[in-house]
């Protein structure tokens, strides 16, 4: 009886035994610090099924691949290869996974790529590829993941991509693609990640996307020229974790139906022309980490229900037409790192509860109509690196407690109605690089210990009532 011998594995090399002797079927040398050119003798390994040379420092040209008809997995990602993708790759008819991402490949995508119908993953992300996306890619009916982002591709998105019924991931971001989003993409019911950001796409955001793509998890369309309104049916994407539409030309209101996206972590709608109020329903998005609504035409008050967003780390409402007070409930946002409410027409006092935001790194409340005193509780913000309260109507004294902000690098309180002396405690801010207290009613001597702030490069105390000598 003849006993079959198992494959032999030696340091990333797997050998099989098809007929006589042994042949190499797998070569895995990822992350070994290898450099130089990849040898052309690889084409002699005609029984090779897996070739993984990723995460090395290989440069020069791609190895010849035309004779590797049994190759199923080719991973040369994260190297420094500089070459065009050879048309001979179409001879690798068994290829299922091709990953050439994170290199410096040039030239155009060859039409013959579409002849490899068994592809499940095609990853050419972050290269220097030019030209258009071949419609023949629509022939890859087994394709599950397609990454062509971060190149220099132009032209329109082929409608033929709508034939890829098994596609779950589509990355075409950071190119120069133009035209509209093809209606045919709504045929991709298995799609989970649709990433088309940072292109030149126009037209409307497909209104029935919520109906057609029920499995969608990422919808990333930022930095394009999309127009029209946000359709209420967007709320049907209940499994969505990231919705990023910032930097377009969208108008109309924010649909309250977005509260159905209970898994949403990122909501990026800034830098559009959205109007109306901020829906109180957004306070139901308990998993939300990033809320960016700045640079729109939003009006009304900040809903107090936003204080329910316990996972929120980033909150941008700047450059809108908001009114009313900052809700005291925002002091409940214990995970908040950034708060930007600048240029938003807010009034009233700064809530003392903001001193509870122990993780806050950046606070920008500038260019509003805030009044009253600066809360002493802001001295509790031990992680704060930027505080900008400038261009308001704040009065009273600068709290001594601000000297506790040991991480503070930027303090801007200019153009208010602050009075009294500059606290000596500000001399404790050893990380401070910029301090602007100009255009107030400060008086008395300049504290001598401000001269001990070794990192301070910008100090503006002009237009006050200070006296004495300059330290």
Quick summary:
This protein has one helix and 37 strands. With 471 residues, the chain is mostly beta strands. Among the domains are: 122 residues, Alpha-Beta Horseshoe (Leucine-rich repeat, LRR (right-handed beta-alpha superhelix)), CATH 3.80.10.10; 118 residues, Alpha-Beta Horseshoe (Leucine-rich repeat, LRR (right-handed beta-alpha superhelix)), CATH 3.80.10.10.
**What's the end-to-end separation, in Å?**
97 Å
Mean pLDDT: 93
Shape field: elongated
* Largest sheet entry: 21 strands, mixed
What is the rounded Rg? 29 Å
CATH classification, class level of the domain at 202-323: Alpha Beta
Per DSSP E runs of 2 or more residues, the count of β-strands stands at: 37
Runs in which pLDDT lies below 50 for 5 or more consecutive residues are 1-6
Number of H- or I-type helical stretches: 1
CATH-assigned fold name of the domain at 202-323:
Leucine-rich repeat, LRR (right-handed beta-alpha superhelix)
Residues in helices, as a percent range: under 10%
Q: Structural class, from secondary structure content?
A: mainly beta
Query: What's the CATH architecture name of the domain at 202-323?
Result: Alpha-Beta Horseshoe
CATH H level, superfamily name of the domain at 202-323: Ribonuclease Inhibitor
Measured by DSSP, the beta-strand proportion falls in 25-35%
Subcellular location: Cell membrane; Membrane
Keywords: Cell membrane, Glycoprotein, Leucine-rich repeat, Membrane, Phosphoprotein, Repeat, Signal, Transmembrane, Transmembrane helix
Domain Disease resistance R13L4/SHOC-2-like LRR: 38-196
Main location: membrane
């Amino acid at each position: 009886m003849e006993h079959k011998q198992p494959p032999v594995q030696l340091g990333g090399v797997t050998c099989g035994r098809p007929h006589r002797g042994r042949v190499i079927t797998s070569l895995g040398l990822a992350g070994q610090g290898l450099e130089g050119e990849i040898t052309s003798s690889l084409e002699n390994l005609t029984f090779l099924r897996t070739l993984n040379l990723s995460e090395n420092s290989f440069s020069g040209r791609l190895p010849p691949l035309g004779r590797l008809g049994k190759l199923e997995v080719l991973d040369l990602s994260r190297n420094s290869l500089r070459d065009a993708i050879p048309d001979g790759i179409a001879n690798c008819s068994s290829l299922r996974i091709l990953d050439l991402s994170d290199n410096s490949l040039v030239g155009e995508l060859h039409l013959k790529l579409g002849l490899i119908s068994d592809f499940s993953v095609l990853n050419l992300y972050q290269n220097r590829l030019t030209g258009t996306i071949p419609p023949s890619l629509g022939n890859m009916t087994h394709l599950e993941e397609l990454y062509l982002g971060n190149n220099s591709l132009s032209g329109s998105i082929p409608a033929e991509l709508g034939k890829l019924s098994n596609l779950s991931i589509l990355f075409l971001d950071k190119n120069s693609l133009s035209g509209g989003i093809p209606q045919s993409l709504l045929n991709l019911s298995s799609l989970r990640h649709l990433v088309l950001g940072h292109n030149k796409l126009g037209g409307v955001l497909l209104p029935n996307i919520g109906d057609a793509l029920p499995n969608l998890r990422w919808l990333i369309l930022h930095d394009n020229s999309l127009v029209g309104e946000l359709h209420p049916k967007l709320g049907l994407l209940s499994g969505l974790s990231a919705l990023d539409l910032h930097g377009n030309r969208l108008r109309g209101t924010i649909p309250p139906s977005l509260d159905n996206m209970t898994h949403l972590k990122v909501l990026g709608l800034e830098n559009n022309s959205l109007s109306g109020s901020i829906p109180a329903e957004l306070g139901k998005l308990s998993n939300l980490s990033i809320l960016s609504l700045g640079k729109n035409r939003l009006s009304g008050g900040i809903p107090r229900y936003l204080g329910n967003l316990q996972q929120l780390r980033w909150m941008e409402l700047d450059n809108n037409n908001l009114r009313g007070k900052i809700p005291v409930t925002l002091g409940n946002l214990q995970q908040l790192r950034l708060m930007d409410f600048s240029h938003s027409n807010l009034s009233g006092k700064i809530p003392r509860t903001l001193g509870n935001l122990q993780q806050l790194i950046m606070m920008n409340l500038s260019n509003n109509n805030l009044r009253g005193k600066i809360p002493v509780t802001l001295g509790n913000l031990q992680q704060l690196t930027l505080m900008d309260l400038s261009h308001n109507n704040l009065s009273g004294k600068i709290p001594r407690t601000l000297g506790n902000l040991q991480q503070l690098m930027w303090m801007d309180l200019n153009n208010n109605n602050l009075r009294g002396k500059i606290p000596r405690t500000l001399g404790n801010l050893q990380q401070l690089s910029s301090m602007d207290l100009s255009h107030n009613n400060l008086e008395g001597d300049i504290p001598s210990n401000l001269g001990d702030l070794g990192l301070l490069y910008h100090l503006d105390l002009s237009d006050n009532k200070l006296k004495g000598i300059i330290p």
